Amino acid sequence: MKKTILLCILLALSSCATKKIMIGDNEAKKDGEFALSSTFIKVKGKLFAGEFALRNLNDKKSVIILLSDIKCKWGDQTGHVKNDRPFNIGEKTINIHVLGVKNAKLKCEVPKKGSGEMQLIVKRIYNNVNHDGKSLGKVLTKDFVWKHSL
Q1: Cys bridge to 50: 3, 6, 38, 146, which one at CB 3.0-4.6 A?
Q2: What is the spatial distance between Cα 56 and Cα 70, in angstroms, rounded to a whole number?
């Protein structure tokens, strides 16, 4: 009986598995300012997710990105970005110190099953004048886009 229950659980879990696609070196970069990359994407139905490396290339300024300022597209559909952590308990702000890197698990969900080019759009990257991870300064970069086509 225990083996049957265990087998059923394993089958249920494997049926929910997402397809992990290795994408290699896929970095969007604005010289001297910012870079965004991911080594893999997971695709399932109407969402894609990945662990994204956000790099501050500025040697003088810390930056802050609000999760609400990160948008996504998949083909011609616009979606919503969330932290891909259980219960969406991850950071709502992403602060990156001078020449620092922050990894964030992000997922994009669109209304229908997606196809075509995937995009993450960082609408605004703010200067963190006090280097405290909280104080928003002036906008350093607008509409920074990372793209990947399947």
Answers
A1: 38
A2: 16
What are the distances in angstroms from CA 135 to CA 35, 53, 61, 130?
Answer: 21, 22, 12, 7
**73-101 per-residue burial string, b: 16 or more CB within 10 A, e: under 16:** bbeebebebbbbeeeeeeeeebbbeeeee
Cα distance between residue 144 and residue 110, in whole Å: 20
Instruction: Tell me the pLDDT tens digit for each residue of 115-149.
Output: 999 999 999 999 999 999 899 999 999 999 999 98
Tokens encoding 46: 């109407």
Residue 133: left (phi > 0), alpha (psi -120 to 50), or beta? left
- The residue assigned the tokens 């994009």 is 108
CB 22 within 8 A of CB 42: no
Of the CATH numbers 3.40.190, 2.60.40, 1.10.3380, 3.30.1050, which one belongs to the domain with range 19-149? 2.60.40
**pLDDT tens, 46-105?**
999 999 999 999 999 999 999 999 999 999 999 999 987 765 566 688 999 999 999 999
121: number of Cβ within 10 Å: 17
